[in-house]
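Morning!

This is the sequence you dropped in the shared folder:
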Amino acid sequence: MRYSAAPSALGGPIFPPDPMDDHRKKLKFRAWRRGFREIDLILGRFADARLPALTSGQVDEFERLLDAPDQDVYAWIVGAEAPPAEYETETLALIRAFTAEAAQPR
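The structure's back. Tokens below.
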């Protein structure tokens, strides 16, 4: 379907399709529903803001983080523990930077 600013037959504008593919949408859902509120907020907000722009390799890294235990991922992000080498990725660095940026007073 094409984008049109003109109203549709139902009376509203026709909007372009969501730019995220189904895989990214599922990851975003998982990021918000981990069961540990602090990590939900960190990973969910990151997914909302940055998931559409991640490369396919970064998406794979993000998915691996979602498969890791919540307490471990939280400790890696906040710097309480060093992650194993396989989790010390560009995506984890992006999440750390995003979290630090969000914590800065405005």
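Headline: The mean pLDDT is 87.

More detail when I'm at my desk.
O.
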